[in-house]
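User: Before I run my own analysis I want an independent prediction to cross-check against. Here's the chain; please return only the structure tokens and, at the end, one sentence I can use as a sanity check.
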Amino acid sequence: MRVIATICARGGSKGVPGKNIRQLAGLPLIAHSIRQALECNIFAAVAVSSDSEEVLSVASTHGATHVVTRPHELASDSAAKIPAIRHCVMQVEETLGICDVVIDLDATSPLRNIADIQQAYDLLMNTGCPNVITGCRSRRSPYFNMVEIDGDGNLALAKQPGQDVHRRQDAPRTFDMNASIYVWRRDALFGSDSVISPATRLHEMPESRSLDIDTELDFELVEYLLLRQAT
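Assistant: Structure tokens:
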């Protein structure tokens, strides 16, 4: 079974400029995901894809086995992530050969741990599902305390429960996708542009490991949590 890790990290960022190579708890942000992949011991390759030569240089310094220059059309603000992952996979396969499983680690989600990666992979292998995503329990429930407003300004629950729900704990379980880990069988990755199919499975992570960095406040919170983990 040939498994490769992809880490996609654009050079630009509006919320936190240069965040992917900015120092976080003593390491460039992207280095946390690279080190987790290397320590996981399931990957034949750890590949970083970026439109930035500076990001790729930092990635090489911190152990990435492959660095892939991403075409500009796959690195714009509006570009979808799956095409960038596919491009990265195909570039790695030119030297490594066809892979069986692709695990994408989001560079902005360094709070995951090695067990999360391994367990998400095991879920794929043990269930025969096409892909696995990660998420945490929702803080708000569409069945209980999440509402929509219609064109007339009227409120209604976002999702109507089959019976009255008087406590959030009694509502059906819902999850926030945390975008930390995506696991695909290769044919599933290349066969659909959606990350969710009827057979997709979810590996649950705690909220404490589900934060991702999109703002300066996120950066400070994640750094605090990482430093607390290290003590």
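Sanity check: Residues 139-173 form one domain.
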